[in-house]
Give the backbone structure.
Amino acid sequence: MKRIAISMRRFIVAAMATLAGSAPALSATFVYVSNAEDGDIGVYRMLDSGELQPGARVKAANVVMPMAVSPDRRFLYAASRSKPYLVHVYSIDSTTGALTKLSDSPLAESFPYISLDKSGRYLFGASYGGHVISVNAVGSDGRVAAEPLQVIPVGRNAHSIRIDATNNFVYVPTLGSDEIFLFNFDGKTGKLSSNTPSVHLMKAMTGPRHFITSSDNKYLYVLSELLGTVTTFAIDDKTGLLTEASTATGLPSDTKLGPGAPRGAVGVPGGPPPRSTDNDIWAADIHMAPNGKFLYISERTSNTIAAFSVDGPSGKLTYLSSTTTEKQPRGFNIDPKGRFMVVTGEKSDTISVYAIDTGSGALKFLNKHPTGKGANWVEIVSFD
């Protein structure tokens, strides 16, 4: 009987091991936060509750700011805005979220925004201080080519660059000249060429900054840094040209803030003379919930996240509410399932996590977690 019992235990253990080996890996979500003043990237695991478990912080470089994740989620790209201007490439461990440095490659300028085309073969950059954009080739191993394919002058203070869902059209808002530059993209060569017309001019002192496109690629939403408004543009699916459809403010009716003005670039001398900015509108980031029903922006002077409802057929936005958050919230993001939002503050030593009500869009504060100094950008990656 004793031998039978031992054999049975061995059989059970072996069976459990077999089942464990054949079972699919549990889904995992990881949050990455760039800390400009500390020159590193914070790594966190997001639990199903929205709680964050901190991991190791990975060294990057002074004034590390914008980040981008490859479409296949294998690589994280982070750009440093201090000389020498570099893009740091990391591989992402899909099980632990750990980052492993692969390479550093030179960039043409100080870029406050980087992104990739839908194939992940080309890296775009927009320079606020250099007034240019660039394209660099990306190898199958994730490494970025040292020499750019193109460096193209645009309007003053280029603040973001993104491609549409078709991988055919690229848009570049220039905050200082109130323009949106429109480009055609050749996915085979990685080259940009001007669309016709090549520029959409917005009203003076709008200050177009960051933007997103709707999941159906029908609308493009542009955030005004200086007014705290979001302008909806209809996208022509054949030409990529833009038509203004509507504008909505992201500020409550009782706000004490007024229109802002362009500010100097990080690490770039000059710019406008010093002035009080205590009551300036200073909007920063924009993201849409994956279900397409709600859109959010951050406003740094009031330390708030504003929520809008989205009318899908028309693209029209309706302001809902503002939620007080971290101090000077330059960057935030929403997890791919649309359940949680993570917000950084450049003048905070914590990041905040909110649960998103999928019916109303309302934010419910969950918890704060320690972070580095100058936290400014958030990327969230999920592996199913």
Remarks:
- The first strand starts at residue 28 and ends at 35.
